[in-house]
């Protein structure tokens, strides 16, 4: 099951399937996709944290027992559902933060990779062990791991299926920071982000998502255009006026 808890403008989404180390079956992944869709459209939610219930796992992957019975068409549908959840985390117009406790393997690591920012507990263990099952990462792992850690690191990890601990994950850039309790760190940053202009955050996320693909010159032109347009927002006026008046800004999202 998926728990959604609001704390002011931040939202904590918890994947809670303790009997299987929070591994994702169809019901859990569908529920996660549906909750993420709602949060993407909900303007009162300004930052989203994704975590796994309990101490042992963020998400131990796609449910292997379920996957073992799939035929080609069913596997493609299963892949598409995971991709949809990942794209929502990656493109929803607000920051998404993975708070990784324990195992984040296979589809679990891929969901974390789809988030904008990743924080890990010292207990975190991350990797793409699909190769050991005779399959490949199917929810973005062959693409996003390379975007986050570089192609050489990504190829080593997906080819070998090697699991890395929190310290190595930090060293290779797979996570942004390691801290216990990891939820405190995620909440602190989510609260900070929720206090910033949601318009600026949305536009920065859109532009940053283009940084590693497409035409560089076009992407820079899009940045220039967007930079100009943001000057029509109340938040831009408020931010710059507050600086001049030596006070804290109050962003309305308009
Ligand atoms: N699926 C189903 N059940 C799982 C599971 C998983 N991924 N991971 C753990 N469990 C279940 C165990 O079966 C066990 O259940 P019972 O046997 O007690 O009923 C329970 O959780 C506790 O696990 P263990 O007894 O094994 O606990 P340990 O502490 O000894 O070990 C572990 C924890 C996480 C190291 C171990 O459970 C493990 O290795 N789990 C599998 C990890 C893994 O390989 N994850 C990657 C899954 S593959 C695609 C779409 C998606 C994907 C690929 C392609 N397309 C359609 C293209 C994604 C693939 C994956 O995510």
Write a concise synopsis of the structure shown.
The chain is α/β, with parallel strands linked by helices. The protein has eleven helices and ten strands.
Tell me what the structure shows:
- The chain has eleven helices and ten strands.
- The chain is of the alpha/beta class.
- The strands form two sheets. A six-stranded mixed β-sheet has the order 1-2-3-5-7-10, with helices on both faces. The chain has a four-stranded mixed β-sheet with strand order 4-6-8-9.
- The chain is 48% helix and 16% strand.
- The protein has helices at residues 26-41, 64-67, 72-91, 107-114, 141-149, 151-160, 166-171, 182-194, 198-208, 216-229, 234-244; strands at 2-7, 10-15, 47-52, 57-59, 96-100, 103-105, 117-120, 125-127, 164-165, 177-178.
- The chain folds into two domains: 2-194, 2-enoyl-CoA Hydratase, Chain A, domain 1 (Alpha-Beta Complex); 198-244, Lyase 2-enoyl-coa Hydratase, Chain  A, domain 2 (Orthogonal Bundle), CATH 1.10.12.
- Bound molecules: 4-(N,N-dimethylamino)cinnamoyl-COA.
- 4-(N,N-dimethylamino)cinnamoyl-COA binds at residues 20-21, 23, 60-65, 75, 78-79, 82, 103, 105-107, 129-130, 133, 135, 137-139.
CATH superfamily of the largest domain: 2-enoyl-CoA Hydratase, Chain A, domain 1
Strand content: 15-25%
Helix content: 40-55%
Outline the biggest β-sheet: 6 strands, mixed
């Amino acid at each position: 099951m998926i728990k959604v808890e609001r704390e002011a403008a931040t939202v904590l989404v918890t994947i809670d399937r303790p009997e299987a180390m929070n591994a994702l079956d169809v019901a859990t992944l569908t529920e996660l996709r549906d909750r993420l869709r709602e949060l993407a459209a909900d303007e009162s939610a300004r930052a989203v944290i994704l975590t796994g219930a309990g101490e042992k796992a963020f998400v131990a992957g796609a449910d292997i027992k379920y996957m073992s019975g799939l035929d080609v068409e069913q596997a493609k549908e299963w892949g598409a559902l995971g991709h949809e959840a990942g794209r929502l985390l990656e493109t929803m117009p607000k920051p998404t933060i993975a708070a990784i406790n324990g195992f984040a393997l296979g589809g679990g690591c891929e969901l974390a990779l789809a988030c904008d920012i990743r924080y890990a507990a010292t207990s975190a263990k991350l990797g793409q062990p699909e190769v050991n099952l005779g399959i490949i990462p199917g929810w973005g792992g062959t693409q996003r791991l390379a975007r986050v850690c570089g192609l050489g690191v990504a190829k080593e990890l997906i080819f070998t299926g090697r699991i890395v601990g929190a310290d190595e994950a930090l060293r290779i850039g797979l996570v942004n920071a390691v801290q216990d309790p990891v939820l405190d760190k995620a909440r602190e940053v989510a609260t900070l982000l929720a206090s910033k202009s949601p318009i600026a955050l949305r536009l920065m996320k859109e532009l940053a998502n283009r940084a590693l693909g497409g035409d560089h010159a076009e992407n820079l032109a899009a940045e220039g255009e967007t930079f100009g347009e943001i000057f029509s927002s109340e938040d831009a006026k408020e931010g710059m006026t507050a600086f001049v008046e030596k006070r804290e800004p109050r962003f309305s999202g308009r």
